[in-house]
What we know:
Blueprint: E1 3-9, E2 13-20, E3 23-31, H1 38-41, E4 49-54, H2 57-60, E5 71-74, E6 84-85, H3 95-107, E7 113-118, E8 121-127, E9 132-140, H4 142-151, H5 174-200, E10 205-209, H6 213-219, E11 225-226, H7 230-241
Parallel strand pairs: 1-4, 4-5, 6-9, 7-10, 10-11
Antiparallel strand pairs: 1-2, 2-3, 7-8, 8-9
Helix pairs in contact: 3-7, 4-5
Amino acid sequence: MNKYLAIDLGNTRTKLGFFEQDVFLKNIIIKNNELRRLKEILKGEKIDKAIISSVNREAEMLIDYNGFEFTCMRLSSTTALPFKHKYTTIETLGADRMAVVAAGQKAFPNQNVLVIDAGSCITYDFLTDGSIYLGGAISPGIMMRLRAMHGFTNALPLLKWDGETVPKIIGNSTVNSIFSGAINGAIAEIEGFMSLYNQQYSDVKTIITGGDARFFEKAVKNTIFADPNLVLKGLNELLIYNGE
């Protein structure tokens, strides 16, 4: 069976996903400055073809594509997608959003699927049971909310969240009030979006991914499926769809 590599190149780190056809095998996470050693990192891995999604062109320039013994497809707005869409600015749609929708379609074929990616931003992407991508929403993630309250005021401190604690709704200090607003606000937002989608569409399956996925999986009261490797799985699906 064919062996595939999915490369998700982010702002500071890169995720490498290894697949046998459509079966996820493992992942490796490296810092972007290690991309110049990518050939060395992949030594011993049998790879027939790869796909890369990049939001950091400067870091991507560290990759020596000529050193690969396999072809590498770059995901872009012109890449063929396994679903139809009604997105009016497809050329600005993030590659990670394309990937998670493809993965959502694979996980729940012919069903209404809401995919939430909870990282620096929280993105919402919706695919109908007729495999039509409608779009979604983008809002600040938890750390962005904390940084914004500090950066756009003179008095509020910059706080660091441990990634696990759900604060009390009523904060009894300025610090606790900031945490409540940022974290409980994000939880309420996600629950609110899920409720709105379920009011408009029947039997919506919700998947969450991203750095804060495990936290929201536990904190959100509605049924939600967490998959930290959803972007990698979606990239692999796009590679397969585009002719392997």
